[in-house]
Structures are given as C-alpha cells and as structure tokens.
Automatic annotation (TrEMBL):
The lineage of its organism: Eukaryota, Metazoa, Ecdysozoa, Nematoda, Chromadorea. This is G protein-coupled receptor. It comes from Caenorhabditis japonica. GO terms for biological process: olfactory behavior. InterPro entries: 7TM_GPCR_serpentine_rcpt_Str. It comes from the Eukaryota. Keywords: Membrane, Transmembrane, Transmembrane helix. GO terms for cellular component: plasma membrane. Gene3D superfamilies: Rhodopsin 7-helix transmembrane proteins (1.20.1070.10). The chain crosses the membrane at residues 24-47, 77-101, 113-131. Pfam families: 7TM_GPCR_Str. The keyword Transmembrane helix applies. GO terms for molecular function: G protein-coupled olfactory receptor activity.
Amino acid sequence: MEINQTAYIAAVFFPPDYHGDPCFSYQCGIGVLFIIAIMLVPFYIVITTGIKSVEKINEFPTSDYGKDLQMQLYKALVAQTLIPVLSLFLPFSGVFLLPLFEIDCALLTNSMMFVYALYPLVDPLPIFFFVRNYRNAVANIFCCKCGRENQIHNMAPPPEITSF
C-alpha cells in the first residue's frame, strides 16, 4: 500500500454488494466489537480497583492526616482516570461507531488529533489540583525562583505522625 493511501484506511460498514446496494459487513462489525471489548477491560479494572481502594481506605484505622492524604490521592486518581476517558476513549469510540450509523465524523477526527496531542500536558494536572502537598511544593519552587519567601503550608505531617 502506498503511504498516501494509509490515511484512508477505515472500517467500511456498508460496502456495495454485487448489485451496487449497500450491504452490512460483518467483518467490520466484529472488528468494532473487539475494539470496544479492548476498551472495556481497562474500565472494568479501574472501577473495581477504585471501589476496593475506597473500602481499604475506610477499613484501616489511620490518623486524620493519613486519611486526608489518601482521599486526596484517590480524588486525583479518579480525575486522572476521567481525563483519558473523556479525551481519548469516548472520541475514539465515536470515530469507530458513528460510521456504523452512517454519521459523518470528519469534524470529530480533526479535533481528536488536537486533543490527543494535549493529553500528555493535561494528564498530570489533577495531582497539582487535588494533592495539597504537591501543590504547595510546586508553589514553593516557583516562589523561590521568583525571589519570594520560602513558604510551605501544610507540608509537614502533624505532630502525632512524626512521634512514631
């Protein structure tokens, strides 16, 4: 296949039959089902692991500081799960499924490349928004670079943690 033809490879769900009438291609349908199954496996793993994580966080007796930190990390994990779901899985699922219903998805494919390129930039942001210690450490680094006072708030654990 020539390199200039590779951009046009796609599932043709309704190729013309011998009489020129559109006929459903079961090979393409089965291929899309396999792709959807491959995308559902990570969803299942993330959801079951998330549920078990919350149960374990609530099960073990820890200090308020420990529980607060664990819940901050859990919220960051949920946000970091939603980012690829909303920016990668759903748009790519749409690109695979919309042609099945004969819906043009050219606008979606053009914008998907932009979102796909931004994903590595956006993915680590939930850590800074949800985990107070990381946010304060990064703010401290930028304050020191700008010549401001070294101010770290809520970075040290409470006294009952350091007494162990």
